[in-house]
């Protein structure tokens, strides 16, 4: 079942993330989290996200604007390492409290509570027209890179903020997509260095089946990106964004309450 769920999410969202506000990690991370501990889910998502973005750079990266990338992605990479280190700290803390529902005991941990709240906040970027139209002037690119990188490192959610700060840079649609994709690769590489020093050596060792899922999700994401690159001029996403936003709120509430 986990292969079906994760691969379907990967192929769908990978294609849409080429030109929508949300990113692959926004939905793929909760899908991994249904089957694995949260730190493992975030780290696994980062691997798929990086591999998929490298593939997308091959497809659309030639249009990227490097002057924008340097101002946006460099502070993003630095902030991503801070966010990833903070996630590692949160994951090592004891549960905040336990409660019993029916015949099961549930734990509310700080890492799940923080990520759940962040997922809900990012869901509002998809649901509310104000946030959907939010954009910042070009002078705020370093700040935008730092914010999106930090939240990317902490929770895997960075697409909505990245789009909000890049949308008013005066780039063409193709340059916007290429610039965002290259920036994502830089941020992903930075946060994976931190995840590699912590999660992979500590958490992945006892979850061997995760590697098969990571490979399957990566292949599915490649296929989704290829299909998405062919549909970039033909699709509108508002209804889908609303549906995904509502789904993310449910996931965030379940994660924050310890149910997931």
Account of the protein in words:
By secondary structure, the protein is mostly helical. A two-stranded antiparallel sheet has the order 1-2. Helix 1 packs parallel to helix 10, helix 3 (38-60) packs parallel to helix 10 and helix 5 runs antiparallel to helix 11 (238-256). It has one domain (2-256). It has helices spanning 2-16, 24-33, 38-60, 66-91, 110-127, 129-132, 141-155, 159-166, 173-202, 210-231, 238-256, and strands at residues 97-101, 104-108. A hairpin with a 2-residue loop joins strand 1 (97-101) and strand 2 (104-108). The chain contains 11 helices and 2 strands.
Q: Pick out the low-confidence regions.
A: none
Q: Count of DSSP E strands?
A: 2
Strand order of the largest sheet: 1-2
Mean pLDDT metric:
78
Cα shape: globular
The class by helix and strand makeup works out as mainly alpha
Number of domains: 1
Determine the fraction of residues in helical runs and give it as a percent range. over 70%
Q: What is the CA-atom radius of gyration, in angstroms?
A: 17 Å
Strand fraction band?
Answer: under 5%
Largest sheet: 2 strands, antiparallel
What is the overall number of helices? 11
TL;DR?
The chain has 260 residues and is mainly alpha-helical. It has one domain (2-256).
Task: Please give a handful of descriptors for the protein shown.
260 residues; mainly alpha; two-stranded antiparallel sheet; 11 helices; globular
